[in-house]
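Project standup — Tuesday

K.O.: blocked on the structure for the chain from last sprint. Re-posting the sequence here as requested.
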Amino acid sequence: MRCRDTAVLLAVLVVMGCSPSKDEGGEGPGPETPDDFYKSGSRLKAQVTTTVDGLRWPSEGLLWFDITLNQPCSWEETAADGAVSCIPREMNSIPSGKVGFYFDASCTEGLIIRSEPLTPGPHFARKGAACGEYPRYHFMGDLVSNTTAYFHDGTTCSAVSLPPTSKVYRVGAMVTAGTFARGALKERTRDSGISAHFIDGEDGSAQFARLHDTVRDTACGNHWASDGKKRCLPVGATTAHGQGAFAAANTTCTEPAYSATCMTAPRFAVTFAQSSCAPGSKVHEAGEQVTQVYSAAGAGVCQPLTMVPPDTRFFRGGAEIPASHFVELKEVDLKTHGRLKVRGMAAGDSVRIPVVVHDTELNTDCRFLEDASRKLRCFPLSNLSSNQSLFADSACTSPLGLEDVPTCASSPPSRHVLVRTFTATTPYYRAYNAGPKHDGPIFERAPGGGTPSTCQPAQRASGATYYSLGTEIAATSLVEGTRIRE
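H.V.: unblocked you, prediction finished:
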């Protein structure tokens, strides 16, 4: 597929001032409120979570709903001129090369196989594209009664029998102009070497898309830098990414290799820090391409890496670019709604990015998740989590919380544990106060049972820290949210 800056298309939260650019002079009004970083249009409706105190927060993964197609969609780049389209979330796949299912013995006419029949309404299929191209979109064609298809494995085309429950569809016509809502990526304002770009929909909708480093002409994102500060570091189509122990540029697995998809000449190479406690992200100039990379296999073994994702190239890192060369993003409080406060990052006075909702009563960031009664509550976020599979006792009655993202030595330990529980296949959440650190043995339930006979010793994960669960935080004591479509 064409190398695209996917950061452009994420529903990242932002607050922007619409004043003249500070870089260009002019004072203008101050930044707008956190409610102004996206808006509904005549066709695309924002799906948000609201509270009785006036908070309006995007529903995760479900920001836009296309009322013409009657289904959710998300923005994707669809043309080289910066045009984007809101592509339906449910999308079937058409073979883009030889590999896949076909109608004919020469494997030229692709088909679509589903386990369930289509529901009423328009449905679509995506045909992938090679590097430098964009996907093509088709309507779903007719349902046919084929019991035999042909499968191309990359080398040969062979007949295969289909299960009787398979639903087989032909590929229909390509979508016509206007089928999907369209928009364009436009700069809205800039400040302190950072510009903010929005997607303006043709229907009047709007959404923040990305930040842009105007000095280096690259999309940039909010990351911990090597000097311990949050800075706008290069991302997207200019940047190759380090893969940790997965890929190295030398036979001793001591020199990192940076990967890039559909990219022949990245300008930057970076491994992003996973937390504020990890060594900060170091940004390098991208070096020369390497044709053979290596991977650490444990116990001092470094071996050639043979399984490489399609269209992926690897590069060495060049000279390091000092962290101070990148714009710092400072933490700011944006707006308070009852006990919830919107917190974010700011570049200068005009560009402000909402990042998270903070519960001032629990003094922790929170996220809207469903409780056991399927109501949305702003559950405390924590480095401690539990799915109630690890326990402190041989009867598997005292669940443990696992610290999967280490806290810094200088930081206080996490005070809450977020527990994910399943009813059938649908998760819901509970929250607990964190109990004392558990240094003793740990146990786990064997699959398929909960009696003491199925409780068995478990190995401690290397570097992991375990905590007992304290008292439960009543879901009804957390701020309730309501999901609406505007």
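K.O.: great, moving the ticket to review. Residues 230-323 form one domain. The first strand starts at residue 15 and ends at 16.
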